[in-house]
Amino acid sequence: MDGPWLPQDAAGILLVSADPYLQEEAQRIVAAAGGNLRTAVDVSAAIHGWDSAAVVLVGSDIRELPPRRRAPTVLLGRASDGDGLWRLATALGAERVAVLPEAAAWLAEHLSMSGSPDPGGMVVGVVGGCGGAGVTTTAIWLAQAAAEQGISTMLIDGDRWGGGLELAVTADDIPGLRWPDFSETRGSIDPSQFRDSLPMAGGFAYLSWPGTREPVQSPDAGAVAAVMDAARRGFELILVDIGRSGEAIRTLAWDCDRMLLLATAHLASAVAAGRVLNELPPVDVRLMVRGSSTTSVDAALIAESLDLPLAGLIPEIKGVAVGTELGRLLELGRRKSVSRFANAVLEMNGAAQ
Q1: Three-state DSSP class for 176?
Q2: What is the mean pLDDT of the chain?
Q3: Burial of 150 (0-12, 13-18, 19+ CB in 10 A)
C-alpha cells in the first residue's frame, strides 16, 4: 500500500471525555491522521461502540471504565495533570499516554498506524529493581546476542542522568546521532534515515545520551515519541535501558511491549524491586536476578514473592566493572556463559525466532 495506513472509517476512533480542550485537540489530531472521531462525554454514553472502535481514547477526566470492556488505547491529558496522569493510566490499564499538546504529532502518527498489518518491532524495557543490578550491562549483552542472531536490533539509553550508555558500549568515538540531536524534531521520522543516522557497535545500533559533562538540550515528549515510533518501524527488536530513572519509567516504559525487571539476590533488593514493579505500566513483566556466591536469597523465591516469571540468572563475570569503565562490555559479552544467558532470555521473551 502506498502512503500511511489510515484507520478504517467503519470502526473509527472513540474519544471518551467531557473536557472541551481534549475534545478540540483530539478532533484536530484525528482529522490530521485521516480518521473519524466519535465523542462520548462519559462512560455510559461510550458503552455502545466501545468494543467496535478501532481506537479508544480516554481523557484524564475519566476515572473508571465500563464493565467488561477492553482497556483504552491512549490516555489523553495535559502537562498540568502531572504524575497523577501516569497513575491514572496504570489504574485504567491504558496502553499509551499522550500529554497534549506536546504529544500531538506522535498521537497523529500513532492513530495513522493503529491497526496496520505491520505493527513494527518489539520494544523491551530493561529496568533496575535496585541499585547494582546491572541494567546497562544486561541490556548491552542482550542487544549483542540479538544482533548475532541476525535480528535487526537497536539499544536506547533511557536514562539521561546515567552518564551516557555509549561509554560502556565502546571506547571508540563512533559517529552518529545522540539524543540531543533530536531535540528539535517535529512530526514523524523516516525509519530508514533514522536507522542510517545512528552509531553502530557489536552489530546493533544505539541511541545514547552524550558521555560528556557539557549541558545538553533534552527532546520534549513529542520528539521522544517520534524517536520511539521510528525505532519501532526501523528495527525488529528495540531494547530500552531504563535503569532506575523515575522519569524514564513514567515515559519510555509506556512504549514498551514487555519489561525485564532486574534485581540482586538479597532481601532488600526484593523489597525495592517490588516498589519499582508497582510503578511499571500494565505490560508483561519478567524478573532477572543477579547473584553471586555471597547472596542469601534464592532467585526463584524472589520471583515467587513478586509473582513474576523468572526470565534468567545474570551470570557473574569477573571484570565487568572494569569493562564498563573501559568500554569493553562487548568483549565480555562473547563469553559462553553470557551468550547462553542472553540467548535464553531472548528466546523466552519471543525476540528470537
Answers
A1: coil
A2: 85
A3: exposed
The C-alpha atoms of residue 320 and residue 316 are separated, in whole angstroms, by: 8
Q: What is the pLDDT of residues 168-210, one digit of tens each?
A: 898 888 999 999 999 888 777 888 899 999 999 999 999 999 9
Cα gap 63→89, rounded to integer Å: 10
Q: Are 60 and 37 in contact (CB under 8 A)?
A: no
- Residue whose C-alpha cell is 546521532: 177
Let me know: does 251 contact 221? Beta carbons within 8 Å. Answer: yes
Paired strand residues for 260: 126, 286
Structural domains in the chain, CATH included, are 13-113 (3.40.50.2300), 122-348 (3.40.50.300)
Q: What is the pTM for the complete model shown?
A: 0.71
Nearest to 179 by CA among 244, 252, 101: 252
CB atoms within 10 A of CB 352: 17
User: What pLDDT was estimated at residue 297?
Assistant: 75
Exposure letters 293-305 (e unless 16+ CB within 10 A, then b): eeeebebeebbee
Q: 348 vs 25, 281, 314, CA distance in Å?
A: 41, 20, 14
| Residue-level length of the chain | 353
For CA atoms 309, 311, 315, 320, the dihedral sign is negative
